Amino acid sequence: MIHRFRTPLRAGGLAASAAAALLLVAAPVAAQSADRWPARAIRVLIGYAPGTSIDINGRFLAQRLSEEYGQPVVVDNRPGATGAIAAEAVAKAAPDGYTLLAGPGSGIVATPWLQKVQFDPLRDFTPVALIGEFAFLMVAHPSLPVKSARDVLALARKRPGEIAYGSNGVGSAFHLAGVLFGAMGNVDILHVPYRGGGNAALVDLTGGRIHLMWNSPVFLLPHVKAGRLRAIAVTGPKRVPAMPDVPTIAESGLPGYSMTGWQGVVAPAGTPREVVARLNGSIGKVLGSAEGREAWTGQGMEPTVLSPEQFGAMLRADFEAYGKLIKRIAKEI
After folding, report:
1. d(CA 99, CA 36)
2. Going by DSSP bridges, is the β-strand pair 230-234/301-302 parallel, antiparallel, or unpaired?
3. Residues sharing a CB contact under 8 Å with residue 164, sequence separation 6 or more, in sequence order
4. Which of these, 214, 137, 212, lies nearest to 174 by C-alpha position?
5. How would you write the pLDDT of the chain (333 residues) with one tens digit per residue?
6. DSSP code, position 75
7. What's 71's DSSP letter?
8. Mapping DSSP to helix (H, G, I), strand (E, B) and coil, where does residue 77 land?
9. Which of 63, 74, 182, 234 is the most core-located residue (most Cβ within 10 A)?
10. What is the dihedral of CA 95, 195, 60, 232, to 10 degrees?
């Protein structure tokens, strides 16, 4: 955090006159800087590996924003620590609109509850735009004799600690989805974390070395359609239009279970409001386009347009909600 101290000045003195002159110059310079934005390349940091859901969506947005602004919008993958490496880099970046973070809600607001990080999600970021909300998809390797959440629970009771699920790191939303499933179902399932993203976990899942996974539909659906994985259920309160035949966990064996995620874009705290407003409008335009809606709904996501203020309120509410959830299931983590 930058601390600004006020130095007492004598009225009418040279120092006071100089300070006043600086203020008169600084205001129009800052305004002109925001007006000229973007004058160079913009970096979008993503704390997960290429090929993950947030990477796919981040690259889609980056390409469309580059076309609109006439400047390169470059995706910079910095996987590790459940997104914290990228988040810390953005929190420390200059608040000029040229460094952004695209990430899932869990990586932004849940990670600080689970590990020591060098950022505060409420203090160090300026909310820019929500880019989508989605339920997770629960899948199993076809060799596992299960077709529903009820089947998974029954098998886990017979084989406590033997049914393994992979995630993209401790504290990720996909890890917490499994923890909540085990806690509510009163079963012991084994968590296997993978660094950086879900690709390594997916390789082990399709190879039969682990049994289950919770992840975003866009990441898993191609493997379901190819028969490499079996869709078990979705985690939200209702079925997903892209997968109408896949039931919710609540309706297929675990009443009351519900968990959804979101993805969003944030900037360093102090980023000019004019820049944030322009980014928000541009992202909203992408999400509202026919191409954007098709890309999002086709992967089981709902493109949701919120103002920076509305997104900020959502971010604060989810920070508290994740804190309560993590405290509730702390013994399982």
Report:
1. 16
2. unpaired
3. 189, 190, 191, 192, 210, 211, 212
4. 214
5. 332 222 222 233 434 444 444 445 544 444 445 678 999 999 999 999 898 889 999 999 999 999 999 999 999 999 988 899 999 999 999 999 999 999 999 889 998 998 899 999 999 999 999 999 999 999 999 999 999 999 999 999 999 999 999 998 887 889 999 999 999 999 999 999 987 567 889 999 999 999 999 998 888 989 999 999 999 999 999 998 888 999 999 999 999 999 999 999 999 999 999 999 999 999 999 999 999 999 988 877 888 889 999 999 999 999 998 998 888 887 777
6. E
7. S
8. strand
9. 234
10. -130
Which residues, including other chains, have CB under 8 Å from residue 192's CB and lie 6 or more apart?
164, 165, 166, 167, 201, 204, 210
End-to-end CA distance of the chain: 31
300 and 218 Cβ atoms separated by less than 8 Å: yes
Please answer whether residues 170 and 193 qualify as being in contact, where contact means their C-beta atoms are separated by less than 8 angstroms. yes
Question: What pairing do the DSSP bridges indicate for beta strands 137-140 and 212-215?
Answer: antiparallel
* Cα 128 from Cα 37, distance rounded (Å): 15
**Contact predicate 227/68, CB 8 Å:** no
- For 248, which DSSP code? B
CB-based contact 47:85 (threshold 8 Å): yes
Report the candidate in 34, 26, 30 with the shortest Cα–Cα distance to residue 279.
34
What DSSP state is assigned to residue 70? T
List the helix and strand counts (H, then E) for the chain: 12, 11
Q: Which amino acid would we find at residue 317?
A: A
Domains and CATH numbers, the chain: 40-134+261-332 (3.40.190.150), 137-234 (3.40.190.10)
- Cα separation of 81 and 19, whole Å? 44
Contact indicator for 237, 190 with CB cutoff of 8 Å: no
